[in-house]
Design a protein that fits this description.
- By secondary structure, the chain is an alpha+beta fold.
- 34% of the residues lie in helices and 22% in strands.
- It contains ten helices and 16 strands.
- Strands 1, 2, 3, 4, 5, 6, 11, 12, 13 and 14 form a ten-stranded mixed sheet that branches. It has a two-stranded antiparallel ribbon with strand order 7-8. The chain has a two-stranded antiparallel ribbon with strand order 9-10.
- The chain starts with a helix and ends with a strand.
- The N terminus is likely disordered.
Length: 396
């Protein structure tokens, strides 16, 4: 071995020995600096690996909340809130029936179209080769455009297939519509030609329609004709909105001894309604209405603002300058067995009772009477208003 190799070997040996010494010193230094408690914790952390928690509940070690668990929790809380918002045990039978009607109308608006079509099929009260009359349920719109999922127009193709003698591809047509809150006779035509003919008859006031309403108050005189134009107006205030109102063409003279005719408003629509009080008791009345014209909300406006006897359940026209539930007299509340705070759930007591059409294609005149709804009859009984010989539809 030469001198260079010997020096190299000695250096390498010394470096290796020095490295081992440094490693030992570092390990010793670390062990001396770490306290026994921290060292024990570190040892447990490294030795005891986390194990999968059992399926059963553990109050100390809860498993992480999954998305599906959170969604189910929200659904349960929402369902509980809905249950608490509507009392399970109403204080009176009327409130119970009102809540049942409200739930039924909401269900019919959101059920599968086939279910609504079946319900309408069961509600048919007249049919021939040209026309069909169904007893329209409360709260279901006839035409599209409202917030409801379903409307009668959208399920007419399904109803046509359910009808006897209707061929595939046939369609039913609405002739004279009804508002969402109105119950009773809804006229349908089996083809477009008949529908156009009925609409032409209606335009020339040849279709006779009679409605029944329960009003708050007794109209004076007990029979007459209301001939006051109706116009849509904007109501300003904390809750700006639009509603139909009166636009009379006569006003009191300055002397107060007579009336003076004024020029009719351009946007006003002529509205004529015949009325007749059939019975009255306990400050309420059963009134028969026969609209000669077909202006929007004509009967409701004439009853509320022309006669001063609003229809029970007509919350839209119970007040002119605000949107609020109808305010009923204490005596009426007592008779109905309902609290003022629940009056907002009372349905509109406006029922399309009778429909008369002139003969068509050599046939005799058609006159159809539609049975009253259960809630309508119940209100009359509670108010002790005698009911004429009208059939009742106990399913509504």
């Amino acid at each position: 071995m030469n001198s260079y190799s010997a020096v190299s070997f000695a250096c390498n040996h010394d470096l290796s020995h020095l490295s081992k010494m440094l490693n030992c010193l570092i390990k010793t230094r670390i062990r001396c600096c770490v306290s026994p408690g921290v060292a024990s914790m570190l040892a447990r952390t490294h030795v005891t690996a986390p194990k999968k928690q059992p399926s059963g509940p553990d109050p100390e070690n809860k498993p992480p909340l999954r998305a599906i668990d959170l969604a189910q929790k929200i659904r349960r809380e929402k369902a509980q809130a809905e249950k608490t918002s509507i009392p399970k045990s109403p204080v009176s039978p009327l409130e119970k029936s009102v809540l049942e009607l409200r739930q039924l109308s909401q269900q019919l608006q959101n059920v599968h179209p086939n279910v609504l079509a079946k319900h309408l099929h069961k509600s048919i009260i007249f049919q021939n080769q040209e026309l069909i009359v169904i007893n329209k349920p409360y709260g279901v719109p006839v035409q599209e455009g409202s917030a409801a999922k379903n409307c009668i127009y959208s399920v007419l193709p399904i109803l046509a297939k359910m009808m006897d003698g209707m061929k595939g591809g046939s369609q039913l047509h609405t002739c004279i519509g009804l508002d969402k809150e109105i119950t009773g006779a809804l006229l349908l035509a089996r083809n477009e030609e008949v529908a156009n003919h009925i609409q032409e008859l209606h335009k020339h006031h040849q279709v006779e329609r009679k409605y029944l309403v329960v009003s708050v108050g007794v109209p004076v005189p007990s029979e007459g004709v209301i001939d006051i134009p109706v116009i849509e107006r904007e109501v300003t205030g904390s809750q700006p909105h639009f509603k139909m109102g009166l636009s009379p063409v006569y006003r009191m003279s300055d002397s107060g001894e007579g009336v003076t005719r004024v020029r009719a408003h351009r946007q006003a629509h002529g509205a004529v309604t015949k009325y007749r009080v059939l019975e009255s008791s306990n400050g309420c009345s059963l009134v028969e209405l026969q609209p000669i014209t077909g202006v929007k909300h004509q009967m409701r406006v004439h009853m509320a603002y022309a006669l001063g006897c609003p229809i029970i359940g007509d919350h839209k026209y119970a007040h002119w300058n605000k949107l609020a539930p109808q305010r009923l007299p204490d005596a009426v509340l007592k008779r109905l067995g309902i609290q003022q705070s629940k009056v907002r759930y009372l349905p509109l007591h406006l029922h399309a009772r009778q429909l008369t059409l002139p003969g068509f294609r050599g046939q005799d005149d058609i006159s159809v009477s539609c049975p009253l709804t259960r809630f309508f009859v119940s209100t009359l009984r509670k108010l002790q208003i005698s009911l004429p010989d009208y059939r009742t539809d106990e399913t509504l």
